[in-house]
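In response to reviewer comment 3 from the previous cycle, which asked for concrete evidence that the modeling workflow produces usable outputs, we include below a single protein chain processed end to end. The sequence was submitted unchanged, and the resulting C-alpha cells are shown without manual editing.
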Amino acid sequence: MDIPIEVDLLKEKLGDKVIEYGSIKPKRIYVKIDKSIVKDAVNMLVSQGYTHISTITGLDTGRGLEVLYHLDRMGSLITVRVDIPYDNPKLPSITDIIPGAVLYEGEVRDLFGVSFEGNPYPKPIVLPDGWPEGFHPLRKVYKVDDVKKIIIEHEVGAPQIEVEEGRGAVYIPIGPQHPALKEPIGLRFVVEGEYIVKVKARIGYNHRGIEKAMENQTYIQNLILTERICGICSVAHTQCYVLAVESALDLDIPERARYIRVVMNELNRIHSHMLWMGVAGHEVGFDTVLMYTWRDREYVLDILEAISGNRVTYSINVIGGVRRDIPDDLKDRIIKTMDYVEGRAKLYMDLLSRDPSFTRRTVGVGKASTVDALTLCAVGPTARAFKVRKDIRKDDPYEAYGEIPFEMVVVDNCDVAGTFIVRAKEILESAGIVRYALEHMPSGDYRVKAPRRVPQVEAIARIEAPRGELVHYLKGSGGEQLERYKVRTPTLANIPFVAKMLEGCNVADIPIVFAAIDPCMACEDRMEFIDESKGLVWTWSLEDLRAYRKLREKGSISKPIEYIDRFGGGLNVV
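The workflow returned the following C-alpha cells.
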C-alpha cells in the first residue's frame, strides 16, 4: 500500500511515534499515533490543509480508551487515532489549534471520561446537573439499566445556566424556556448596555442516549431509531446510516436506488429550508413570510407523502436500497411541483431583498468573518453564507451527486441576510437536482438483499443534510448488533460559530441571529422515567420533579413510580 503524502510527512517529522496507518476507503485515511504527539500531529495536518474537524469520536475498546480525530480537507477525511489507558485518560486539548473542537472534546469527556487539558469549557456539555462524577455512560462497563438507575437514584435534573454577578458586567440568562427559543438551550450573555460582549451556550436538555441505545439493537432496529434523531432531517439521518452500514458491508446498491435517495434528500432539503425561512421571518415579526413559505411547503410534503406514505418520518431508506420505488405516473406531478417551488423561491428572494423592515433586521446583523467560520468549523448554509466553500455533495460526492450538475451556493454577505439568500438559492438548486434525477432515472431494481451481520470493521459516512455536514461513525461487532455508533449533527458543529455571530449584536437581535443556523436542539425541557412493565415513557416537567423531591424529603414517597401512580407525570407516550 502506498503511504499517503500526509502520513509520509508525519512519519518523516515524528518518527516512530507514528504507530500505524492505512486507508479504509478512498478519501478515508487513518493514522495511529502516540498520545505524546497529538498536538504536533494536528498542527502538521492543519498546515497541510486539514483545517476542518468534522468530529471527535470516543471508543471503549475493552483494553482501554481510544480517541479518533476526524479532520477534513476538501472531502478527504483523515482520522488520527490515539490510545489512552483507563487509569490516566488525559490528552491535550487541540482547541488552540482548531477552536471548533471545543464541544467535541467536551462530549467525549462527558461520555467517556477523557480529560482534555486546556479545553476552555471544562463543565458538562451533554450530561445533566446532578450526574455523578466518574460515571461515563458510554463506557462498556455500564449497561442501559445502569444509566436508568443513576438517573433515578441521583435525581438527575435539567442542566442549569451559569449566572454570575458583579465584576462590573451584566449577565443575562436566556433559556432553556423563552418565547424567542423554539427549542431548549441555555444561553448566557455578558452585555454592556444593549450590546452583547460574550456568549456561552449550555446544551443537553433532551439528550436521549441514542448512541448507547443503538448498541443494544440490531442493525434493522437502529434504522428506525436513527430516523427519529430529527423529524425535519429524518431522511438525512437514515441515508447517512445506511451509507455507513453499506460501506461496512462493502455492498453495492442499484443505481436506481441512488437516484431515488437523491430525490428524497433534496425534497427534504426544500421543505426544511421553507420551514426555516418561515420561522426566521416570524422571529423578526415578518409573519407574511411564515404564511407564504409554510403554505408552499405543504406541496412538497404532499409529494413526500405520495412517494413514501409519510409526511415526516419517511422510512424510505433501507440497507441495500430504498423501500419504495417512484412510479412513472408520479414523475410529472413532482416536476410540476418543482416548477412551482422555483417560482416561489424567486418570489421570496425578491420580497426579502426589497422589504426595508426585513433588511434592517438582517443586513449587517450577526456579522462575523470568513476566518471565524473556518476556524470554528461552521457547516452547511451557515458556513456558505460566510463565504466558506464547503458542501459534502460537491467535496465528497455520495449516491448520485457526482453525476448530477448543480451549483454550490456561496455568498459573501457574512451576516444573517446571507443565510436567507443561501437557503432561497439552494431551493432553486434542489428543484433542479430533483428534476434532473427524475429525467435521468436509471431503470432496474431499487433494492438488493443485505446481510444481517456486519463484520468487525469501521465505516464513516458523511452527507450534506439541510443544516450542513452530518457525520455517522460505525464500528461493527461481527454480529447483528454494532459495537459503537457515533452521530454528529450540524447544529452541534454550528453552536461555537453562532456564539461568535452574537458578539457585538443588540440584545433584541438574539432570536434572529440564533435562528440563522437553523438550530435543532430538542423537543422540550424534560426528564424521562421508563416504566417497562407498562411500556410507557413518562415525561416529567420541572414542577413535577420539584414536587416529587419535596414529598420524598417528607418521607411521603420513596420512589418516582409512586409519584407517577398518585399524581401522574405529564404526558405518556406508548
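The domain at 210-515 is CATH 1.10.645.10 (Cytochrome-c3 Hydrogenase; chain B). We consider this sufficient to address the reviewer's concern, and the full set will be provided in the supplementary archive.
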